[in-house]
Write a structure and sequence with these properties.
The structure is a homodimer. The first copy, chain A, is of the alpha/beta class. The first copy, chain A, has helices at residues 53-58, 137-148, 167-176, 188-197, 211-218, 232-241, 254-257, 270-273, 290-302, 319-322, 325-328, and strands at 7-13, 26-32, 40-49, 79-86, 96-98, 108-112, 156-159, 180-185, 202-205, 223-227, 242-250, 277-280, 310-314, 334-338. In chain A, α2 packs across α3 and α2 (137-148) crosses α9. The longest helix of chain A is centred in the C-terminal third of the chain and has 13 residues, at 290-302.
Chain lengths: 343, 343
Amino acid sequence: MDNTNRSFKSWRLKQRPSGEIETTDLELVDDIIPEINDNEVLVRTIYFSLDPTNRIWMSDVDQYMEPVEIGDIMRAGGSLAVVEESKVEGVSIGEIVQGGMHGGWQEYFVMPASDIIKIPKDTGLPLTAFISVLGFTGPTAYFGFLDIGKPKEGETVVVSAAAGAVGSIVCQIAKIKGCKVVGIAGSDEKCKWLKDDLGVDHVINYKKENILESLKKSCPDGIDIYFDNVGGETLDAALTLMNKFGRIPVCGLISMYNDWSSTGPKMYRNILMKTLTVTGFLVSDYAEQFGECLESLGKWIAEGKIKYKVDVVDGIENAPTAVNKLFSGENNGKLIIQTSKEP
Amino acid sequence: MDNTNRSFKSWRLKQRPSGEIETTDLELVDDIIPEINDNEVLVRTIYFSLDPTNRIWMSDVDQYMEPVEIGDIMRAGGSLAVVEESKVEGVSIGEIVQGGMHGGWQEYFVMPASDIIKIPKDTGLPLTAFISVLGFTGPTAYFGFLDIGKPKEGETVVVSAAAGAVGSIVCQIAKIKGCKVVGIAGSDEKCKWLKDDLGVDHVINYKKENILESLKKSCPDGIDIYFDNVGGETLDAALTLMNKFGRIPVCGLISMYNDWSSTGPKMYRNILMKTLTVTGFLVSDYAEQFGECLESLGKWIAEGKIKYKVDVVDGIENAPTAVNKLFSGENNGKLIIQTSKEP
């Protein structure tokens, strides 16, 4: 294929945001699609993931991997792409692959043979399942809740950002494991979905209710596991009510991402007073156990025990505005950008 | 024995301190020594322990056990007492026992047969060993460092209050386990003891040095285990330098005990960024494993691998002023009050 006349768009980081991400912090750039070498494929992005961690990567605070450098293409937490050119044996044009760490906020990219993971065909599931519940958000919920949370039947589990891509799966796995589940979300509509469709026992709309007071009412036996996606005031309320030997998997701290100067929880002392275990984790550290995880999640989806929602925003140009929906809570399910049609 | 004319002194909590403990927050009261019933012993306190947790028990914040009630005898973290009267078969006058939860800031008390634990005779060790390294502080160091800290050979371990009763034992167990040890203490004299006598690799005098800068220099490979006794600024500095999968056993947060309104660590986010595990623990939760622990500690003491210091303050009347030495760092070893002579 002669690429010389073909260009693709990508979002490059222009400056580090102060506070909320502004469109002017990034730049939409046109580049020529590169030629591929032997043992490489050229892929066209169909979907890329928008995640709270995009905001971390835009900052230069010390973090779990290198931040995105100024001028570099914005990294994505996952993407799905279709092979348009292949110099890899066994990989054909039209096959769909995971972008892995090569995909980003871009329409085209090149991948080496060694990193190609094909999306299985004829699963009966929509392709978007593989960039949501069967991409990274499902496994994040699975490992964080089961490996770090160590749930026991009958325990009380509180989940923040409970209607989010990770939180909603945590709620459902907690129900499968026989826990009592309290979900905290930011709208009546989300709370209704959690309760009516996902079987969450109690819901709290944090935009309307006092979190601590509502948690006291909904957790008369205290909290055994607090699955934290947000940090801040919600973390403090949960810490206040944790039971002895409680566990706090730290999946995210989204309330801090726009303001790194914010302090830690006032109730930090309860880690000592209640002999708690607070553990940060990254799904990428569980790569070797993904097979087992995807098998369980797939089975639960097939049995109707796990439901998930995907919020597709069309057009690469909308990525910098859409990502802020994660911070305002306006998204409705796993947020992804669609940059081209599914084949 | 006719007790009617015999009185004993005890310190009772008069009001909850605001800030540092004042002598006027407690009251030294005279009471008549009680008669004992069948299956009880009357014991005379020889030593009782002063610990940072005394300050927690004086507060009414939610804590790991019930606070001491206003008007009640101040609880002690341990005591040694000699039997003066016995209605328990097999327990003789003159034998020395642990006070357990019955001992407090008091000269006499009664114990039921079921709670009596005798101190072994003819060990060659001074009696004070059994209210320090072989009482609770040694086991606190042992379980917190080994079970929560999970050290591996060659790892970098940072210990705050490193010259304290617990910290100094942690430093020495860490050396036994082949770790590199950095101790933080509050005087040049303590630092010298840590380095010259206990074999600590690097020492930091936090009253003279910037903790973060000194830790950066002494931990070029980052920190794998931070054994926290203090919280506050030291915790923040350690959090800043923790390595991926680092562990923080939370043994104490003494910098917060006089001001419960202090906030949590600014660098809390590193629990996520560095996938840390932060775990509060209490030595009392390890009661079933004390035998194994005391055997190891005894062996290490006999081999000269573990040294310990005891700071004996004479006279029950000095307890409320002496306890503040733990907060100013003026004590020199495990702080205990002697209320009567060893037999």
